[in-house]
Specification:
The protein has one domain: Ribonucleoside hydrolase-like (Inosine-uridine Nucleoside N-ribohydrolase, Chain A, Alpha-Beta Complex). Helices cover 38% and strands 15% of the residues. Helix 4 packs parallel to helix 13 and helix 4 crosses helix 14. The two termini are 33 Å apart. One of its GO terms (molecular function) is hydrolase activity, hydrolyzing N-glycosyl compounds. This is Nucleoside hydrolase.
Amino acid sequence: MANWTARAAWYGLGGLVLCLGPLLLPAPAAAEGAVQAGPAAAARDGRCIVVDSDGDLDDYRAVAALAPNRRVAAIVMTEGIARPLQGAGAMEAVLRHGNLAIPVIPGASADPERQARPDKDFQAWRDNAERLNGLLPAPVHGSLAEPGNLAAALRPHVRDCTSISLLVIGPWSSFLSYGAELLERVDRIVAQGRPYPDEIGGVPDGQNCRHDRDACYTAFDLLVGRQLRAGRRVRTDWVDIPNGPQPCAAAEPGVDAEGNRLFAFRPVAAWAEGLAAGQRMAPVIGGMLQANPDGWARTSLWDDLAALYLLRPDVFAARGGHLEPCVPAATVQRMLTAALEGKAP
């Protein structure tokens, strides 16, 4: 059960809105006084970020870290952990509580007959993600309907973007609908996970691929084929937590000497407490974490690190075909806190 104090603090409007908040609060695009983080902001220098998410708790944290510091033109909510409409509703709630207005477009779903067998706990993970770790009484739909043409729905939000960094922290199902059109302006793709084999040019792998393996491989083929035809390489960087015994520089290893998994790069209660007392997006994320510690007990800073790479690429280094942080987990948490507060991490 979600912690009542955390829920009340997160909503900040008393018990009635605690229960009805998702229905009573306005949609992000119309939120009074909201900071515009879409095309109007992008028009200043033409550089934008588009996020392709599957609506897990680390996705919300990743967007919350980016939005105060970069021009996030749009978010596509692809089915993965969350469903497109319900994930969009949860993402909008996070943005609304941070006074940010970013369009969240419901994206594509995978063919259920072509998905990998889900984990036995998958439905519980989905429910927890769609309810923002227990902050929402029930999943809610986003303000935008599922588009018939995803590329067309995305088009007006990136019209003023001259260069786009695409952050893929979900499956690749939606990318197949908008990718070909967007790639002309994409200067780099940052994806959570690592390729297989773990070397430059290895094919995509990881949890996001398992949600829709067909789309994952097709997207990879599209990227490679387009590079060959256009004579230009779309820079694709894979970012992951350390999983091996030899970390980069001062970062903690992913396994100990006996091969047991270590999870240094993960949310912790002390970090959540510090965020709750912070500014801008920090208390929004801190409140979400504090609402139900069991909801993130077995998770890591997967998507957080991918977002941090866009802000601080200098603290990452290549490890085979992917990138890992080269600073300790505590330093990563401090950097993420700064980003959530709208400061230089």
